[in-house]
Amino acid sequence: MTTTLRTARLTLRPLAAADAPRLGALLAGESAIIRMTARLPDPYTEAAARAWIAGGAAANEQVFGVILSASAELIGCIGVMREPGTAGLGYWIGRGYWIGRGYWNRGFATEAARAVLDWARGDGLSAISAEVFHDNPASLRVLAKLGFAPAGDVERDLPARGGRRRLRRFVRRL
Ligand SMILES: CC(C)(COP(=O)(O)OP(=O)(O)OC[C@H]1O[C@@H](n2cnc3c(N)ncnc32)[C@H](O)[C@@H]1OP(=O)(O)O)[C@@H](O)C(=O)NCCC(=O)NCCS
Question: Is 33 in the pocket of ligand 1 (CB under 6 A)?
């Protein structure tokens, strides 16, 4: 799928092979980012990025690179994964939901997620969920800003994060 979304400052577009060096550079040495995602390998290398992109997205997922429209810089990734009648935001997508450290706290994750929520609504979805580690205050804050409501804890098998982990689940009606 080749959906491209635009916001005031961002362009969200599918990842391409040419993005691999930039993904590798943004995540080099960034265990603090990687360990907040479900599946990104740590350490994350350009080769890992190349393999992820070449592998493509699953049929039920849409992954976007987050691009600063003014400079065309790739600054992170976000995605949605469809479940029957609903969808999961970011967390479960192969490349995760993250913004490079140099771009934090400027509202980019919130702005990107709003665009994805609007797109999901337009695509006929009625709700979207997200799951977050307890010790991730920035992500919890983003979900609060977006109007997600707590929906209890869940346990997931996350081999890349050391096995069975407890997460906080949130749901947002669209
Ligand atoms: C979570 C993440 C995507 C947020 O990206 P971002 O572009 O900085 O997000 P925003 O600027 O839209 O919002 C961040 C909010 O968190 C707040 N915040 C940041 N660090 C915080 C902390 N340690 N404690 C509490 N709030 C914090 C910011 O102040 C901001 O809230 P505000 O607008 O009310 O001031 C980014 O921190 C990241 O990539 N983290 C690592 C990967 C990750 O956690 N991914 C999500 C997995 S569920």
Answer: yes
